[in-house]
TrEMBL record:
GO terms for cellular component: nucleus. Pfam families: NEPRO_N. InterPro entries: Nepro (IPR052835), Nepro_N (IPR027951). It comes from Aquatica leii. Residues 7-187 form the Nucleolus and neural progenitor protein-like N-terminal domain. This is Nucleolus and neural progenitor protein-like N-terminal domain-containing protein. GO terms for biological process: positive regulation of Notch signaling pathway.
Length: 374
């Protein structure tokens, strides 16, 4: 088993949970407690980071088929795998177990073993290395997405993915810096704590004295040359937050002056005669004749005002439907039969309640509503 890459093991078995008894408290317990509490507070309050990781996972799920030939989606999948591996590390659980074994008063003389602290340090090595990988891969993804954005296709999808990657880049960078700081604070306690018969850390494995130097990367620096190049290349995106149109005008004028100075182009304005404004031309229009066909003809429903009129219409409609060909253009044969049956039903109801004028009027209104479309 290779002990050199102990931090890179996916399923690293922790040492047994044990404590030892000391005669005197040679360890600054309160300082160790404060460091672990700050670490737990930071690792627990990663809701923004978890949300962005969830956004990335869902974006890949929705776009991996459509963008299967895109190189950027392959890089995003690498970032997602690194985030999933960091999630499986469950640093909160291991730090909580170690913190619970530290006494809260000076009377207790039982402390966790050195192996448990060494396990936390090795886990911090792996977490920092994962964050560095996410940061460096996010740079590559941002570069590829920027290339696709410059083409001008699928802006909504590309800007969405670029925003997710940018936020993951910043959060991973800050988390990697925190892991380096936490490692530096916990490393001196390995000399103060003691170990039992069981030694978890192999003899040939040496914990680095400076985690940031061990990572051997420039991505954790405040500003790098690559970041400056990316910032200069994407400076035009700052105009999206501007609400003033003068900013666009100033940028366009600056670009024009820059091109003119480089190419020595002289712009000559030629005055041309564009003619007389259209407002001064007298336009004569002929008055349109009144279209007699546009006058609305009286509808069929206007001629039905009583039960006798409705019976007459139903009789004519049943015997000679060709009389109402113009009125029946909007309905088909089946609708015509339904109309005829419904009218016959209303007529029977009106004959049945002929002495009740209210019901007769009600069914007459229903029949007229039915014929209103004709």
């Amino acid at each position: 088993m290779n002990n050199i890459n102990l931090w890179n093991r996916k399923n690293l078995e922790p040492p047994p949970i044990a404590s030892y008894k000391t005669n005197s408290l040679s360890v600054d317990v309160f300082a160790l407690q404060n460091i672990l509490k700050d670490a737990l507070h930071t690792f627990k309050n990663q809701s923004v980071f978890d949300r962005e990781a969830a956004f990335l996972s869902r974006f890949i799920y929705c776009s991996k088929t459509k963008l299967r030939h895109n190189k950027a989606i392959k890089v995003l999948q690498k970032i997602n795998q690194a985030l999933l591996r960091y999630l499986r590390m469950d640093l909160v659980k291991h730090f909580q177990v170690f913190l619970d074994m530290i006494p809260y008063d000076n009377e207790s003389v039982y402390l966790p073993t050195r192996s448990m602290l060494q396990y936390l340090l090795v886990r911090l090595q792996g977490a920092a290395q994962l964050m560095v990988r996410i940061v460096e891969t996010s740079k590559i993804a941002g570069y590829l997405l920027n290339q696709h954005i410059s083409i001008g296709h699928m802006w909504k999808v590309l800007f969405l993915s670029l925003g997710i990657v940018s936020r993951i880049y910043v959060l991973s960078k800050n988390l990697a810096k925190f892991c380096c700081t936490l490692y530096t604070q916990l490393l001196p306690f390995t000399k103060s704590l003691e170990d039992l018969k069981h030694h978890w850390l192999p003899n040939d494995y040496i914990l680095p004295s400076d985690l940031k130097q061990w990572l051997n990367t420039d991505c954790l620096d405040t500003t790098t040359s690559q970041d400056a190049d990316v910032t200069d290349g994407l400076s035009y995106l700052s105009l999206l937050n501007s609400l003033n149109d003068d900013d666009w005008f100033e940028v366009s004028n600056a670009n024009i002056e820059k091109v003119e100075r480089s190419n020595n182009i002289k712009v000559n304005i030629v005055e041309e005669d564009f003619g007389v404004p259209i407002d001064e031309i007298k336009v004569f229009t002929k008055k349109r004749k009144r279209n007699r066909t546009s006058i609305n003809k009286p509808k069929l429903v206007d001629s039905i005002n009583s039960l006798a009129d409705l019976k007459k219409f139903h009789k004519d409609f049943e015997q000679n439907p060709e009389m109402y060909t113009d009125n029946l253009k909007k309905i088909d044969r089946m609708q015509c039969n339904m109309l005829q049956n419904t009218l016959f039903k209303y007529i029977r109801k009106m004959d049945k309640y002929s002495q009740d004028s209210a019901k007769v009027s009600l069914y007459l209104i229903k029949a007229k509503k039915l014929l209103h479309c004709l």
